[in-house]
């Protein structure tokens, strides 16, 4: 129910004119000084919009245009309308179910978080079961060729490039295949390689997606909230890049501890430095968008070194070829995302047309999820490879 508070200035004026009885007449003029209403007429609504939403819980929060935003919320001048500005935490949380220019940004990465949570549970439950089954049937597989173990994760047991193509096609259909093993040596391996690099990557992906979703949902609350959540968002991006190296480096160089430690140490230190740089307030300025994109792109590009090293050492193996294919797809998705983010296409071409759907940051989110999923598939190949052969 709308409530109205009115402060009035009262002025009494004596008039010489006479009314019906001929006596002097007093007139009272009332001048409204301040009117606030949750829902009002012309004057009340206009004044109510000027108040800060977080300072007046009784006021209904409204979407505003870019011109009415405080400086800390001005990130993209080509998105011209449907902004939330200084909303209370409760209203900001509930706005996840409303329409504004951050709605799709929130839900793309929130849904992505739950997808990767499901993939993590799937990997934790299905991959060990498949490993056990493949260990008991390794000798039989050497004489029966391709054996379909389950309908889920990839299992690779091949030294043939032709069979690598078969595995890749099966992966696209999400069908698990096992190629012909290399004799009793595979069965004799009898151990499971460490899982922590693979799960570290999954945790890094989930942290990135969750922090991004929270940032887009709650950064509109206040300048302090914007500062904190943007730093968490940058930390999430850094965590995704760093942990993406872990399966690649750990499983590729399982038998080369020096290179393994060198690559893992380099990317971990680089990630820590990137997080430290992102703590600087100047880092979030709109004009430094290219600097942010360049920093994360350079971190990701450094992954080319261990990939090239892998192909030099294991280029004849189908596992190396297949994982490199997935990693190139991941890199292509991430690079496309960086270019879209930094150039602000397509809203740059038609400001205001893509305020609610289709703007660059939404496309960036979708490309990040696609790249992360490609690397998840590569991680499954690494696990099956090292489970069979070990070091």
From TrEMBL:
Main subcellular location of this protein, as a coarse class: membrane
Membrane topology recorded in Swiss-Prot or TrEMBL: Multi-pass membrane protein
Compositional bias ranges of the Polar residues kind: 1-16
Record keywords: Membrane, Metal-binding, Transmembrane, Transmembrane helix, Zinc
Highest taxon, organism lineage: Eukaryota
Positions bound to Zn(2+): 216, 361, 365
Example of a GO biological process term: response to sucrose
Location in or out of the cell: Membrane
Molecular-function GO term, any one: signaling receptor activity
Transmembrane segments: 106-127, 198-220, 232-253, 259-283, 290-308, 320-342, 363-385
Region annotation (Disordered) ranges: 1-25
One family name in Pfam for this protein: HlyIII
Organism: Paspalum notatum var. saurae
Protein name: Heptahelical transmembrane protein 4
GO cellular component terms listed in the entry, alphabetical order: membrane
């Amino acid at each position: 129910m709308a409530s109205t508070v009115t402060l009035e200035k009262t002025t009494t004026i004596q008039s010489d004119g006479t009314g019906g009885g001929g006596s002097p007449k007093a007139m009272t003029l009332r001048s409204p000084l301040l009117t606030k209403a949750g829902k009002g007429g012309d004057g009340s609504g206009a004044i109510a919009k000027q108040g800060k939403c977080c300072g007046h819980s009784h006021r209904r929060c409204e979407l505003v245009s870019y011109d009415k935003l405080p400086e800390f919320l001005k990130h993209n001048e080509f998105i011209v309308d449907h902004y939330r500005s200084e909303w209370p935490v409760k209203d900001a949380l509930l706005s996840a179910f409303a329409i504004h220019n951050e709605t799709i940004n929130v839900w793309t990465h929130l849904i992505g978080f739950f997808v990767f949570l499901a993939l993590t549970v799937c990997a934790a439950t299905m991959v060990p079961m498949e490993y056990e089954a493949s260990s008991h049937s390794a000798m039989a597989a050497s004489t029966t060729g391709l054996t379909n173990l389950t309908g889920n994760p990839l299992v690779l047991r091949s030294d043939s490039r032709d069979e690598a193509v078969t595995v890749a096609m099966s992966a696209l259909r999400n069908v698990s295949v096992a190629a012909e093993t290399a004799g009793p040596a595979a069965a004799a391996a009898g151990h499971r390689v460490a899982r922590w690099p693979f799960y570290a990557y999954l945790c890094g992906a989930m942290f990135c997606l969750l922090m991004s979703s929270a940032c887009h949902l709650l950064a509109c609350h206040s300048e302090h909230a914007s500062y904190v959540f943007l730093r968490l968002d940058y930390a999430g991006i850094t965590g995704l890049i760093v942990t993406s190296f872990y399966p690649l480096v750990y499983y590729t160089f399982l038998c080369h501890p020096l290179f393994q430690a060198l690559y893992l140490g380099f990317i971990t230190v680089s990630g820590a430095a990137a997080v430290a740089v992102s703590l600087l307030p100047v880092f979030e300025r709109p004009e430094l968008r290219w600097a942010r994109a360049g920093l994360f792109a350079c971190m990701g590009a450094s992954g080319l070194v261990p990939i090239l090293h892998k192909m030099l050492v294991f280029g004849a193996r189908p596992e190396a070829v297949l994982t490199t294919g997935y990693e190139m797809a991941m890199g292509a998705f991430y690079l496309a995302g960086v270019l879209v983010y930094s150039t602000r296409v397509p809203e740059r071409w038609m400001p205001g047309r893509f305020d609610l759907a289709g703007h660059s940051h939404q496309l960036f989110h979708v490309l990040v999820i696609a790249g992360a999923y490609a690397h998840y598939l590569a991680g499954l190949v690494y696990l099956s490879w090292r489970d069979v052969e070990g070091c």
